[in-house]
Amino acid sequence: TAMYEAKRSGRAQVVLFDNGIHERAVRQFQIEAALQLALERGEIGVHFQPIVDSDSGRTAGFEALARWTHADLGPIPPVEFIRAATESGRIGQLTQLVLRAACRAFVPHLCAHGQPYLAVNVSVSDIYADEFSTRLVEILAAEGVPPDRLVLEVTEDMLLGDVHAVTQALARLRDQGVRIAIDDFGTGYASMGYLSNYMVNIIKIDRSFVRNILTNGSDQKIVRAVVSMAADLELAVVTEGVETAEQAALLRQLGCVLLQGYAYGRPRPPEEWAVDGRLEALSA
Ligand code: C2E
Ligand code: MG
Ligand code: MG
Ligand code: MG
């Protein structure tokens, strides 16, 4: 940490300058600049991660996760470039690119046994943007994906705004025939009032409840309670972050059927997933 004398409004002030903060600001700036080009050139793609029906072993759906590798900066984590896109006002553009790429890659899976769905993550500003549902319908039609095969994942904190506005935004999307999942459920502060099946269709239990599930009794109770509540409300439950067979077995005992996580497959390029959801090249 270096100390600088800074002049502000005519008076000398001592400013603490943290080099870590400086480096992060430079990186953020680089990423924002590079992102603009990548969006223009369509250089952001998706990986698919399966959501598995643990009763049948079939792939119930694929979640599309945005991926970007920059020529000089290397692979950039989605949380980082999504933040950059949000702060530079380009999240709408990013979402459209991801939606289009995800739909295009999903088409070969449309006639797969069990009719898997496609889940795409969207941001809070997307769901409030007036033109979003129109664009969404255009993309689905252009790529040939029926709306009822699409699930939009929204995080709980997106539901924090004014109840009326949130209800309207979700209703507009639901009216197009797509389904809504609450992502990272249990980590936000959204009102339970959103958990009606008029509003959402799927609850995704956050992986923080899974990490220590084998030893943490209260995590087990929470998962059991969420499963029971979801059943009463006629909502589906997906549990994310399942990394081991032991976690999967316990989650199944607790009533979780749809499971997602490294135990079933990491996010991989869409073409590596065969239409039955198995890895195209298991030996590779
Ligand atoms: P998310 O939607 O909750 O996605 C799950 C994240 O957990 C992904 O990280 C995935 O790679 C990771 N994951 C999956 N299974 C496991 C597991 O078993 N163990 C562990 N430790 N992690 C697992 P990723 O791809 O880095 O994405 C992070 C977050 O970035 C996503 O969390 C989502 O909130 C956001 N994101 C990703 N793609 C997009 C996008 O296209 N649009 C928007 N708005 N957000 C996106
Ligand atoms: Mg998600
Ligand atoms: Mg999630
Ligand atoms: Mg998550």
Automatic annotation (TrEMBL):
Full protein segment contained here: 541 to 824 of 824
Lineage: superkingdom: Bacteria
Protein name, entry field: Diguanylate cyclase (GGDEF)-like protein
MF annotations from Gene Ontology: cyclic-guanylate-specific phosphodiesterase activity
Residues covered by the EAL domain: 28-281
Species this protein is from: Azoarcus indigens
Keywords attached to this entry: Membrane, Transmembrane, Transmembrane helix
Keyword flag Transport: no
